Amino acid sequence: MSAQHPASPKLRAAGIVKRFGSVTALEGVDLEVGTNEFVSIVGASGCGKSTLLSLIAGLEEPTSGTLEVDGAPITGPGRDRGVVFQHATLMPWLTVQQNVEFALRGERGLSRADRADRARDFLGLVGLDGFERARPVELSGGMQQRVALARSLSYGPEILLMDEPFGALDALTRRTMQELLLEVWERHRITVLLVTHDIGEAVVTSDRVIVMSPRPGRVQQIVDVPIERPRTLASERTVEFQDLQDRILGLIHGAE
């Protein structure tokens, strides 16, 4: 396991156990994620990656163990954490802009005009200028995920949690979204925790990659990614990238 740990973690999980009846999904998970750090979680199917993200999002409770943001316990969903799922989960009866504005209704001190302005700003950030009045059904899968990303960023979360956000997209759209994610992170530099089955995606985006063991999921190893930033998908053509990808694949397949 990597010897590097954040000096003052933004996110901390200690001794996390999660059981569903007689099935133990996670057992003894410990991890720390630093402020503005980009960390990915990879592992074999069924190792508990998405379950761990749901616990951190506050959508489920651990059977035992502690989860903290800035030293305060996670007791449920919060606006300090934005979540992007594999499917965009947009409200089909609202326009693109209204979907983003809906996420801003809980922001104090924002007028309706302020919400509209901020929604347009974040839609512009993800390349959706001109689509503000479109309905989700009129958008491609990749465009819908852009809306979901804009929505989650719009209220200024300190941590962005992403659960296979590009897993349902075709290969070309997925690569476009990976490039967009790199660009957005370079601009905002918030803490990101990404669950993915795409090892290349994990390596090209992340500062560290957490490799989970098969169920019950544990942190098997943490791999540092020393590839210089800013990165693009062209980074995948380097020997360093290929070596890291092969190493992580070997860890996953060796544990199966």
From TrEMBL:
UniProt keyword Chaperone present: no
Gene3D superfamilies: P-loop containing nucleotide triphosphate hydrolases
Gene Ontology molecular function: ATP binding
Database matches in CDD domains: ABC_NrtD_SsuB_transporters
Pfam families registered for this protein in UniProt: ABC_tran
Keywords attached to this entry: ATP-binding, Nucleotide-binding, Transport
Superkingdom assignment: Bacteria
InterPro entries, per the entry: AAA+_ATPase, ABC_transporter-like_ATP-bd, ABC_transporter-like_CS, ABC_transporter_ATP-bind, P-loop_NTPase
Domain ABC transporter: 11-239
Protein name: ABC transporter ATP-binding protein
UniProt organism field: Leucobacter alluvii
